[in-house]
Amino acid sequence: MAAVAGWLIGPAVDAPQAAEPIPSDERARQYFTDEPVVDQDGRSHRFYSDLLAGHTVLIHAFYAQCREACPLQVDRLRLVRTRLGSVFGSTVRFLSLSVDVAHDQPEQLKTFAHRHGADEPGWYFLSGHPVRFSLVLKRLGLWTDDPSDHQTLFIVGRPATKHWKKLRPDASPEEVARALIQLADE
What we know:
By secondary structure, this protein is of the alpha/beta class. It is about 35% helix and about 20% strand. It contains six helices and nine strands; from the N terminus they run ββαββαβαβαβαββα. The protein has helices at about 25-30, 45-50, 70-85, 105-115, 130-140, 175-185, and strands spanning about 1-5, 5-10, 35-40, 45, 55-60, 90-100, 125, 155-160, 165. A five-stranded mixed β-sheet has the order 7-6-5-8-9. It is globular, with a radius of gyration of 21 Å.
């Protein structure tokens, strides 16, 4: 070994290869998770691959036994859905995530969605295994130990463009629809 200005220089060693960059879609899948979730019809989906990828989404927290904020949010979202017209279901989806997975099984999700006129293609009321579903909720900042103390903000975004924003639940249906359409058009 030779010494240069106080540094020991050993035999030439191949520099470590830089790791392959992770494709954007894979980074999003890792971040949001691809945990299995179940909808109001009992169908299983992978959270990122089946529900987020390739779509513009509105995500919000709810629980089926709620008698206060959740029904009001869904009523407001029905108005947003009307304003979205034909892009709803194909380009834009609503993901209503239960914060009470211990109680919100597909039957309760279906009953809640039907009672509030929201059981239609493109609107997913979701729950899942408590430990695995909590990962999804935590990544979105929606986890809570007390379902009645959940976030009421709407999260709107498009994973493909990495554009996300939070909207107040009292935003007008026109404002929410406009934000979703702008994201879908990017």
